[in-house]
Amino acid sequence: DRSTVHIPSVAAKDSHLVCRAALTLIDALHIGQALCTNKIDAYFWLVGHPSALTQETVLICDAKLVSVTGPAINKLVAENSFYRKVTISGGMYNGNPDNIVTFGVGATLNTSAQVPEHVVYTIVKAVFDNFSQFQNLHPSFTTLKPEEMIREGLSAPLHSGAVKYYKERGWM
């Protein structure tokens, strides 16, 4: 079952390029298959890398990842603090030897403001006091830097328990 949303024509600044697009909504379990069977031409996937679905797709149908850059992306990232520019390392996916420059979001652990300060403090302390072990939990964690994690891509205000730990470490 596919749903298609038609996007009106858009012209580039100097009207040299006109683009028509139709977006097809397909659930994540079937998106790779849809690409491989030519039901769609491309898909956008906002996910931590490496991704099993992406790996499966590039293996089954020799798909290529493409960079997503330009003024519109720069504006999107500048106007939305939860987005950031990212690079998917070349060689991470079969048949994609070059770095892929794009944008994404950082993974964020969110909680309620009602969670007691000592609970959040304990969780944050456990992560950062064992940071190298934490980074080994998933390949996408290997590039994390504590000083960036507490400032960039935040999708919610910092909890007082996290702030307490960051201040103890001298990060704030």
Please explain how this structure is put together:
- The chain is an alpha+beta fold and 172 residues long.
- Helix content is 35%, strand content 17%.
- The strands form two sheets. It has a two-stranded antiparallel sheet with strand order 1-2. The protein has a two-stranded antiparallel sheet with strand order 3-4.
- Helix 1 packs parallel to helix 2 and helix 4 packs across helix 7.
- The N terminus is likely disordered.
Short structural summary:
The protein has 172 residues and is α+β, with helices and mostly antiparallel strands.
Q: What value does the Rg take, in angstroms?
A: 20 Å
Pattern of helices and strands:
EEHHHEEHHHH
The residue fraction in helices comes out at 25-40%
Low-confidence stretches: 1-20
Q: The biggest beta sheet, please? A: 2 strands, antiparallel
Mean pLDDT: 80
Spatial gap, N to C terminus: 50 Å
Total number of helical segments? Answer: 7
Strand order of the largest sheet: 1-2
* Residues in β-strands, percent: 15-25%
**Structural class estimated from helices and strands:** alpha+beta
Bulk shape? elongated
Q: Would you report the number of β strands?
A: 4
